[in-house]
Design brief:
228 residues; OB fold (Dihydrolipoamide Acetyltransferase, E2P); five-stranded parallel sheet; Rossmann fold; 2 domains; alpha/beta
Length: 228
């Protein structure tokens, strides 16, 4: 999934700064130049009519300096200061600007500043798992590692290729936890569909060679599930 394009406004009284920033913005994926203004009044008019996502703002400009202009905005866009003067750094960060680019700056430094404005990629969804206790503490057992579950009175066996875990759960609770990728084949067995190698009249054979019985009352649902 691609990130949305950030609309950028350059506010600077120096033509060279406009040229450099326009070039940097143009060659950076995810950025688009929405406008360029020479002073704060022009920028205010632009923002009133055309909101932007990212503001590249000079400080020393005629009519009103960049910091004063930024203070006038009720809802300022994300802002990166671009200036030749180091002494304004504290004021900039007090206004919660994203970064402070000291002229002249390189494209690499520009990219570092821009990265602060771009949304972080969404976190990958956590893999489905079952929490079990072992000697080391709580362990996450991914659903994909589970071959089958066997019910044993007051607990269940969670069987993987590497190890068998014991849980104080009912078969009904395990079926609800594991969801649609698992199928109940017997009152005492829940099987991972991905690991079924062979379906026989009275039993299922798993990829690891395990052979499990099929309960007569579960056969219709198993056949329907297997034909999906």
């Amino acid at each position: 999934m691609t990130s949305p394009t950030l609309r950028c406004l350059v506010v600077d009284d120096e033509p060279l700064a406009h040229q450099v920033l326009a070039q940097f913005i143009g060659q950076t994926p995810g950025l688009a130049l929405a406008g360029a203004c020479r002073h704060a009044m022009e920028a205010h008019e632009h923002l009133t009519q055309h909101p932007v996502d990212l503001l590249f703002l000079d400080i020393e400009m005629p009519l009103m300096n960049g910091l004063s202009f930024l203070r006038t905005l009720k809802h300022p866009p994300k802002t990166i200061l671009t200036t030749a003067y180091r002494e304004y750094a504290y004021d900039g960060y007090e206004l919660a600007v994203l970064d402070y680019l000291l002229k002249p700056f390189s494209y690499e430094r520009f990219l570092k500043a821009v990265a602060r404005a771009q949304p972080a990629p969404p976190a990958a969804p956590e893999e489905a798992h079952v929490l079990v206790k072992d000697a080391r503490g709580l362990l996450k057992v991914p659903h994909r590692d589970i071959l089958y579950v066997e019910g044993c009175k007051d607990y269940v066996k969670l069987v993987t290729a590497a190890k068998t875990h014991l849980l104080h759960e009912t078969m009904k609770e395990m079926a609800e936890t594991l969801g649609g990728r698992f199928v109940r084949v017997h009152r005492s067995f829940i099987v991972a569909g991905a690991h079924i190698k062979l379906l026989q009249p009275e039993q299922v054979v798993l990829a690891d060679g395990s052979v499990l019985p099929i309960g007569s009352s579960y056969k219709p649902d198993l056949l329907a599930w297997f034909k999906k």
